Amino acid sequence: MPRTRHLLTAGALTMGAALTLTGCFAGEGTSAQASSNRVSLAMLAAPMANLSPYSEDAFKLSRWSAAETLTVLDDNGEAQPLLATEWKKDGDLKWVLTLREGVKFHDGTPLTAESVVTSLNKALNASPKLRVLTGLEVKFEATGDREVTITTGTPDPLMMNRLTSPQLSILSAAAYLPDGTVTPVGTGTGPFKIVTTNGSSSAALDRFEDYWGEKAKLSGIDVSYVPDGAARAAALRTGTADIVEALPVSQVSLLPQDLVNEVPMPRTSTLYLNNEKGAFADPALRAAARAAIDRASIVQNVYEGRADESKGLLGPALKWAAEIRGDVDSIARPAAPAGQKITLATYTARPELPEAAVLLEQQLEAAGFVVEQDVREYANMEKDMMAGVFDMVLLSRATVQDTGDPATYLTSDYSCKGSFNISQVCDPEIDAVISAASASELGEKRREAIMAAEALILKKDAALPVLHERVLLGKAKTVSNLVLDPRERGLITAETTKE
User: Where is the Solute-binding protein family domain (predicted)?
Assistant: First the structure.
């Protein structure tokens, strides 16, 4: 483990990072200098699309509590009320929702069925198509002052879950500009209102005094985007930032441990094996690779114990998965690799992955494989990865996506027509169990069907999960009541306080 490199990097950067950030947070908001009851937040990534909800920026809006959706996910990944207070099914294709009363947008206009339908239709017609609505035939209608009816072309058990996606945040009419862009600045419904943005540098939010629920206890949030992990850690250490997201594992040991918070996240680092061609078209060699991996060594030496060894594709962030997981032992017997050459690819955006790949190479070669690594920037490897150029790909992958339901991930990654089928797997038996899971109604039966699909994928060694990542969040002692959300949709809420 190259601990010395980590210490040298931190030592070299800490002083400069602290100096750089000293002026980043004070005075960003409209009332930052007038009130100390604001929190400063250092985030990993700057906005990709000017905070458009039709991009990954949508998750910033939800983490700031600036924009809200019709429904929200509970711990089991099932929809609960938010801007919609209740809903009922009308046959197999229709849902009727009742909207919350007394909700105002940040620009003062009221939430109505018409405004909700306008917002949903804008999202439906967005280009490129939003993942959460891809392949869905759907119609949104205002059927009363506070009633919205949703009709789908085919039965869709995930419809209410889809509405939890931050990309389907409900915004006022003013959000939709004549040039086709969408802005959440002053157009959301959350307890905090975006008042200023400064490109890839910063943003500021003030408490929304006309919020429909309990008013925020904080007076505002000052956000800075700090892509350098050592700089984010330095901001927490020096008190420049009250909250720091995505602390690098290499920095955590250098911080006071009472400032570090961690929670399992639904993200698994997995070795995707090429099931179609090359060495791993042979189930016995896939089994041999599985037997060679020492997960505990990778968790301890690369992640410094701040990750969880995988027992399956779905990790401890989904508590129900472990409770109903059955036998996942390989069907095939391992064969001797006997010098079989394989390529192991990974990417640089997540610094732990290349380090993990080094240990995996050593473990696989000890078992008899001959390994050639290919480490690139993600953008330079994605095309080859999807085309099946590599024998193995080590990838960090979210296992619950826009709907909060893992069946979507299983379909995209392990079905014949999957849109992210790196393993090039096309197995009628696997397709059948994934289809059964996808068609099941939400609840216990769907969870059991999902675990049956996971079990078959693992028994056939279509992919080898290595570890489950954790959310590593820095928080000053003065800050309370943050949401430690495994899905990274929530963070600061109306209940968050600062002493």
Answer: 79-419
Question: Do 422 and 447 belong together in one domain?
Answer: yes
423 and 396 share one domain? yes
Question: In a 10 Å sphere around its CB, with 0-12 CB exposed, 13-18 middle and 19+ buried, how is residue 217 labelled?
Answer: middle
- Residue 237 DSSP class: H
Domain that holds residue 482: 3-66+190-242+476-498
Return the pLDDT at 35.
57
**23-27, 364-368, 397-401, 425-429: range with lowest mean pLDDT:** 23-27
CATH of residue 80: 3.90.76.10
Alpha carbon distance 456, 331 (integer Å)? 9
- Answer whether residue 404 is part of any domain: yes
What element of type H or E holds 313? none
Domain count, the chain: 3
Give me the long-range contacts of 206-213 (CB less than 8 A, separation at least 24): 206/29, 206/30, 206/31, 208/106, 210/104, 210/108, 211/494, 212/100, 212/102, 212/103, 212/104, 213/494
**Residues 116-168: tens digit of each pLDDT:** 999 999 999 999 999 899 889 999 999 999 999 999 999 999 999 999 999 99
**Host H or E run for residue 347:** strand 341-347
Q: What is the pLDDT of residues 406-442, one digit of tens each?
A: 999 999 999 999 999 999 999 999 999 999 999 999 8
Q: Are residues 237 and 317 in the same domain?
A: no
